[in-house]
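Data availability (excerpt). The following record was deposited with the supplementary files.
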Amino acid sequence: MALISIEDLAGLDDEQLDDDITDNPEPMDEEEEERLYAHWQSVASTHQVSVPTEMRGPIQEMTRQNQQQERVPFTTVSEHTKLGEVVYEERVYPAGKWACVTREEKLYEQSISMAFMKLMRYICKENSAGRYLGMTVPVLSEIRMLEDGSFSKEILTVYYLPAEFQDNPPEPADPDIRIVQRESLRVVTMVFFGTTTEETITRQISQLWELLGSTDSLRRDLYMVAVYQNPGVSYRKNEIWFIRRDP
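Predicted structure:
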């Protein structure tokens, strides 16, 4: 059974649902809990995924904490604009500690769903600190390309530890989650909005290559998808990242 990911929630009514709950810091009553859980299940069913009942607690916790997010630190190297709008930019992300999990399911969407749900439970108290750790954005998924041009279904999804925990990260309760010190990363990024399916990501990769032209300085075997928006946002912000060979 696969699980819903942060990218899989959509619809204007979803945004209103999220606003209704996050505006109220008090614990949810039973009706609110059922409405929120039914919302996740309804959207999940359209992507051949299902939300298990043990995710109720993490869903409620993350929904309540929705407005509190920390950006993964980076330095902008350059911006490329057209008619005053940034089309793509280059950034450097410093080395740091990330919580990482790898999943391989039948579909790309299922792989990222399984991985994110594991990370979500780690963030929401299933850790040695026994507390909500805080959400950092973006959450990243690494996509490896196969020889036939399709995605590998084995997806690595990573969550940057908040600044408070960079020196002493809480240990995950789930043995599938690893805390890893990842090296600095130099990427070319382009924003896109909406869902992140294999089809939409393939289209974004093609569009960015058209803008950049032929170059050997960027990897073609590995890309990253960065997800920024919370589960209730219908038209969410994402980025496709191309990785420099020599950061």
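Summary of structural features: The mean pLDDT is 85.
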